[in-house]
Design brief:
Largest sheet: 6 strands, mixed
Structural class: alpha/beta
Shape: globular
Radius of gyration: 21 Å
CATH topology of the largest domain: Rossmann fold
Strand order of the largest sheet: 10-9-8-11-15-14
Helix content: 25-40%
Number of strands: 15
Amino acid sequence: MENEKTAFLRGVLIRGIGSYYTAKAPDGNCYVLRCKKKFRRQGISPLTGDEVLFSPGEGEEHGWIEEILPRRTVCLRPPVANVTRLVIVVAPVPEADLLLTDRLISRAAAQDMDILIAANKADLDRSLAPMLSDEYEAAGIPVYTVSGKTGEGLDALRNAMKGALCCLTGQSGAGKSTLLNALLGLDLETGDISRKISRGRNTTRQSELIEKDGLRVMDTAGFNLLEPEKQLEPEKLRERYPEFREYEGKCRFRECLHDKEPGCAVQAAAEQGKIHPERLRRYRLLLQEIREEWRERYG
């Protein structure tokens, strides 16, 4: 078996369309592959960003994915693998959904991803980035003021993205494709905002790994909903908030979840301005959701 594996090529899946996947080998050559039925039986689907072993096809024939190597991280929305730095794109239009942003941060933090926020469309509103910096400073999450339209702040964002496999994510209409075009000098399709519902129109319908000028970036579809995690213990959520760590063990009750318990050190820190009260408020909304999911997990 080991001799068979050594005959396989190694590569990274850079896109998938239907049942066909494209793998890029270290020499830069790309191969069109299909997925063997064994993965379906195992309940595994290949994801853009997966490192794989594969057998190349001959001539016009496609090859086959033989093995999906262990994933370092997994994002389910968007569905990509091995991301090490998550770039959450928010904008003043459509109105920034910070509860969605916190959901993304929570899941990324659980997998030890680096996280940064790109406050896009600074040409429309310059107040968003300072507000975000204020809310996320205690969590240690940097906020970059950028505009995909004017090019403002792109050099700083590029430097922050180098050396990692990055994924641009966020709600539809935040300008991810426009921003990626500006960052990499590409011509990806971009959309606009629906005036009736003030949401973005999705222009990216598949995930693709793009490599250019020292950057490795996932271009992914936007979304407006992210379902609650069904198997997360409520006690684990607080561990995903870096700004809470200083106060763990200082609450009156040992098992304090920083909700409505008396003598909560996190609540006191929020009242003193050391933790942003809106960040704590949204944490409690997520905690309520997770408690409900946890109670109903066997229902």
